[in-house]
Amino acid sequence: MKAQVFRGVNQLSYEDIPVPELSADEVLVQVRVVGLCQSDIKKIRYPLYEPPRIFGHETAGTIAAVGNEVKNWEIGQRVAVMHHIPCMRCAYCLNDNFSMCDVYKNISTTAGFNASGGGFAEYVKVPGHIVRSGGLIPIPDDISFEEASFVEPTNCCLKAVKKAQIIPGQTVLVTGAGPIGLMFVMLVKHFGAKAIATDLLPSRIEKALNVGAEAAFDARDPDLPAKIQALTDGMGVDVTLLAVPSDKAFFQALDCTRKGGKIVFFAEFPDEMEIAINPNLLYRREIDLMGSYSSSYRLQSLASDIVFNRRIDVKALISDHYPLEKLSQAVEMAIAPTSETYKILIYP
Ligand SMILES: [Zn+2]
Ligand SMILES: [Zn+2]
User: Fold this and answer.
1) CA 338 vs CA 4, 177, 210: distances in Å
2) Percent of all residues in the chain with a pLDDT value above 70, rounded to a whole number
3) Which residues, 6 or more positions from 263, have their beta carbon under 8 angstroms from its beta carbon?
4) Cis peptide before 52 (omega within 30 of 0)
5) I need a labelling partner for 146 at 20 to 30 A (CA). Which of 107, 139, 180, 318 fits?
6) In this predicted model, what pLDDT tens digit does every residue of 238-260 receive, in sequence order?
7) CA of 335 to the centre of ligand 2 (A)
8) Ligand 1 centroid to 236 CA: how many Å?
């Protein structure tokens, strides 16, 4: 089968490799669509993981083979694939910190080499633990593979929204209106809160308004804090979701978030970046800083419900379609987006 193998920093190689062999409790999925995620791009561009690997984890496809002992799954079924599933027993899992679980981190779907998602291939193998524990999600007949590929990123965004305890009537600042920021705007609105978005690209500012933002501004606008005060009765926003890895965005968030509010680090910052803050800003204003990484097992059915019942319009986020062969071009496009680049989908 064909796969895009990570052979080193910025080296993707389109290769013929063997289709993964199944053990008795495993399932093989033919990948139909896989979303290109910012985290894939980081793993390709920075020396974070030893090559060779096959990345790609926002996977939707068709079951192509099942091991002898697999029950309840049949060849031909359409499924969204979760690349990690926690153990549900360790101290992290018992505290709902599923993405810190060793099983979650170490067991992954794979197309070969060190298991790393494996969606950037024609076939991906789903390990028994993931098969048994809810990692295969049936796709309803009226939902496309494209839409189904959004279940995983929806879960990740949903987790941040839930962690920040966003409730109806609140106002939320979303910094960055790329595919993730726009999904935040949709989810914030879905849960009855108001979203204010910022970005540098005029087209993305416009798009944020189109998908439901109450207001959207240029992130460089020096009057942004004043404008946000004006929209929030002089209070500032209840929550800021940082969807861009920018220290400027963080300081802006500090200026725009109300006393007692929350700032969520969602985007992954470059490792070398450090941010100096005066702790009294947090103490006197009681602002909570929190991080939200990856998805939550507990939100899996809600994430599926949101996508499969079209409670948010994930199709509005799709901008580009690339064959797997052209993954490198897709990555280039994501790094230097045009005014119309949002979510990029890859087709093996
Ligand atoms: Zn992702
Ligand atoms: Zn665990």
Assistant:
1) 24, 13, 18
2) 100
3) 239, 240, 242, 250, 253, 254, 257, 287, 288, 289, 290
4) yes
5) 107
6) 999 999 999 999 999 999 999 99
7) 34
8) 30
